[in-house]
Amino acid sequence: LSYNLHHGEGTDGKVDLDRIAAYIQSQNPDIAFLQEIDKNCTRTGNVDQAATLAKLTGMTPVFAKFMDFQGGEYGQAILSKFPVLESRTVTLTPGSEPRASAVATVKTPSGPVTVANVHFYETEAQRLLQAQELTAAIGHGKTDAILMGDFNSEPGDKVMGWLARLYTLPEKQGALKATWPSDDPKENIDHLLFRLQGGWKAVDYRVLAEKII
User: Per-residue pLDDT tens for 124-182?
Assistant: First the structure.
C-alpha cells in the first residue's frame, strides 16, 4: 500500500491518525509506504506519527527524515508486517526541499526483499537524478527490490521510462488510474515498480478511491 498522508491531514482539514490506521488495516497490507509524515512536529501535536501508526496497526516502523521542521522532523516511513532485517535512510539530491528514501530489507516467506519508499521532487531533471541515486544505492536494478510511492511523474516521461528499463512497471487495473489530488484525481503520479526473482507478477494493482484521507 502506498499512501501520501499529507502529515495526517485529510481533505476535511482534520488530522486523525486513528482513521488513517483504520484505513490501512482495512487494506491489510504486508508493507505500507507512507509519504509526507511528521515526527514530533508542532503542527501535528508533537506526535511521532510513524511510531503511532505502527502501534495502531501492529506493524514495524522505519522512518526517513527529509529535514528538521517545527521542532521535529518531516519525511516518510515504511510500516512492515514482515520482520525488518535492516534499514537505512538514503539521502537524495534535493529539489526545493530536501529528499531521502526509507530503505529496508524485510524477511518475507520467499526470502529477503529490499523495499524503498519514493517521494521524488521537484523538476523532472531533479526527479531523474533522485531516481538514479536511489537505484544506485540499492543495486541499480540488480537487487530484488520493490519501489513504491509518490514519483511525481507520469508513465512515459523520462523518470518512469528510465526506471522501467531496470524494473517491472505494471499497468494499473480498473478505470481509475490517476492518484492526485485525492478528491478529484487528474494526475497519475504514484506507482509501484519491482524486480523480483522466481516469477513474481502483479495480480491486483489499483488506485483506491478514498477522497477524505
Answer: 999 999 999 999 999 988 888 999 999 999 999 999 999 999 999 999 999 999 999 99
Distant-in-sequence contacts of 50-57, Cβ < 8 A, 24+ apart: 50/77, 50/79, 52/17, 52/21, 53/17, 53/20, 53/21, 53/24, 53/77, 53/79, 54/79, 56/17, 56/18, 56/21, 56/25, 57/21, 57/24, 57/25, 57/32
pLDDT 10s digits, 1-29: 999 999 999 999 999 999 999 999 999 99
Cα separation, 116 vs 199, whole angstroms: 20
- In the chain, the N- to C-terminal Cα span, in Å, equals 14
Close Cβ partners of 46 (under 8 Å, ≥ 6 residues apart): 40, 71, 72
Concatenated DSSP letters of 18-84: HHHHHHHHHH--SEEEEEEEEES-GGGTS-BHHHHHHHHHT-EEEEEEEEEETTEEEEEEEEESS-E
Quote the CA–CA distance of 168 and 201 in Å, as a whole number.
Answer: 9
